[in-house]
Write a structure and sequence with these properties.
317 residues; Aminopeptidase; globular; six-stranded mixed sheet; alpha/beta
C-alpha cells in the first residue's frame, strides 16, 4: 500500500466530492473516552491473534511463487474450514508485466452464508518480494517479513472467525484473504492489488455485502488509525460506524477522529466496483517495506483493540 492514488475513474470524483462525516460530537470523545472493555467482556482473543502472527512468520516471507507462500495458503484454508460454513478458493496464475507467472489464491470464508444482510472483512496475506526501503542496498533486494504489513490483518480476521465460531453472528460475514497486494511497483501501479482486482472481476455468486472493512498494518504499538481519504469520501457512514464503536469501547486513542490522506490499498478496487469498503490502516510505520517488519513490532494490545472493534461492529448490526 502507498499514499499514491490510483487512476480509477470514480476515485477522482469521490475525492473531489464534498461528503463529510456526521461526527455527532465524536471529536470530543478523543479526550473523554469510555472505560476499555474488561477482560470478561472481550470476545476477541488478542493472545490468540498474536499467535496467528507468529504462525505466519514461522512460514517465512509469504512471497507468491515460494514454498512459504504455498504453505501459508494451505494453512489458511485448513484453519478457515474449521471455523466457517463455506470456504471458496479462487486460484489463478497472474502474469506480471515482466513475464513472470505467479500462482495466486484468494480465500473467502463465508459465515452464515444464507443471511441476506452481509458484511465483508478483508486483509492481504502475501508479503513483499523486495524491501526497497531498507538502508542497505543488498537488503533492498530481499523479501520483507511482513509481520505488521500483512500478518496483522490476517490475525484480526482469524480472531473474528474464532469469536463467531463461539457465538454465531446474526448477520452474514465474509472474511476475504486477498493475495498479491504487495508484489509490484506502487509508483507505476504495476502488479499491485492483484488479488483484490481479480476478486472484483470474478465475484462469487451472491456476493453483496452491505459494507466492508479492510484491515491492513493494524498491529503497531500505539497505532493511530485515522480516516483514510478514499474511505471517508466513498463510505462516510461506515467510517462513522467503526470509529464511533471504537470510541464507545474506550479505544479512541487508537481511532482518533481525524483525516489522514488517500492510500492505495485493497479497498480501492471494491470502491471502483461500487461497494462501500473502508481502510483501517496506520501507514505511519518506520519499518514499512523493510527487513525489520518482524513480529516484535506487532503489539498484542493493538491487535486486541482492533479485534474488539471488529467484533463489536458485527454485534451492533
Amino acid at each position: 500500500m502507498t499514499p499514491v492514488s490510483l487512476p480509477f475513474r470514480r476515485l477522482a470524483a469521490i475525492v473531489a466530492g464534498t461528503l463529510t462525516i456526521a461526527c455527532g460530537g465524536t471529536e470530543a470523545a478523543d479526550t473523554a473516552e469510555a472505560t476499555p472493555l474488561p477482560l470478561s467482556a472481550r470476545e476477541f482473543d488478542g493472545a490468540a491473534a498474536m499467535g496467528y502472527v507468529r504462525r505466519q512468520m514461522a512460514f517465512g516471507p509469504r512471497v507468491p511463487g515460494t514454498a512459504a507462500h504455498r504453505a501459508t495458503g494451505d494453512w489458511l484454508v485448513a484453519e478457515l474450514r474449521s471455523r466457517a460454513d463455506t470456504v471458496i478458493v479462487q486460484a489463478w496464475t497472474h502474469t506480471t508485466a515482466d513475464g513472470q507467472r505467479l500462482p495466486m489464491r484468494n480465500i473467502l470464508a463465508r459465515i452464515n452464508p444464507t443471511a441476506t444482510r452481509r458484511v465483508l472483512y478483508l486483509a492481504h496475506w502475501d508479503s513483499r518480494p523486495i524491501a526497497e526501503k531498507a538502508v542497505d542496498a543488498v537488503a533492498q533486494t530481499q523479501p520483507t517479513p511482513g509481520a505488521n504489513d500483512g500478518a496483522s490483518g490476517v490475525a484480526i480476521l482469524l480472531g473474528v472467525a474464532d469469536a463467531l465460531k463461539r457465538q454465531p453472528a446474526t448477520v452474514g460475514v465474509d472474511l476475504l484473504f486477498v493475495d498479491g497486494e504487495d508484489w509490484g511497483d506502487f509508483d507505476t501501479l504495476t502488479d499491485v492489488l492483484i488479488g483484490s482486482r481479480y476478486f472484483v472481476a470474478n465475484l462469487p455468486a451472491g456476493f453483496a455485502p452491505e459494507f466492508g472493512v479492510l484491515f491492513d498494518m493494524v498491529g503497531k504499538a500505539d497505532a493511530q488509525f485515522l480516516y483514510e481519504t478514499y474511505s471517508m469520501r466513498a463510505a462516510p457512514d461506515v467510517i462513522q460506524r467503526v470509529w464511533s464503536t471504537a470510541q464507545r469501547l474506550g479505544y479512541g486513542a487508537y481511532f482518533p477522529t481525524r483525516e489522514y490522506q488517500p492510500i492505495t490499498d485493497d479497498h480501492l478496487p471494491f470502491i471502483e466496483k461500487g461497494f462501500k469498503v473502508i481502510d483501517v490502516i496506520d501507514l505511519n510505520y518506520a519499518y514499512h517495506h523493510t527487513p525489520q517488519d518482524t513480529e516484535d513490532k506487532v503489539s498484542q494490545e493493538t491487535l486486541q483493540a482492533v479485534g474488539d472493534v471488529a467484533v463489536a461492529v458485527l454485534r451492533g448490526l
